[in-house]
Amino acid sequence: MITGVVSVSLLSLPVLANVGPPEKDELKFGFIKLTDMAPLAVAYENFFFEDEGLYVTLEAQANWKVLLDRVIDGELDGAHMLAGQPIGATIGIGTKADVVTAFSMDLNGNAITVANHVWEAMKPQVAKTADGKPQHPVKADLLKPVIASYQAAGKPFNMGMVFPVSTHNYELRYWLAAGGIHPGYYDPSHGDNSGQQQADVLLSVTPPPQMPATLEAATIQGYSVGEPWNQQAVFKGIGVPVITDYDIWRNNPEKVFGVSQVWADAYPNTHIRVVKALIRAAHWLDEENNANREAAVKMLARSQYVGADAKVIANSMTGTFEYEKGDKRPAPDFNVFFRYNATYPYYSDAVWTLTQMRRWGQIPEAKPDDWYLAIAKQVYRPEIYRQAAEALIAEGKMKAADFPDFDKEDGFRPPQNGFIDQITFDGYQPNAYLNQFAIGLKGNEKL
Question: Is the pTM for the entire model greater than 0.70?
Answer without folding.
Answer: yes
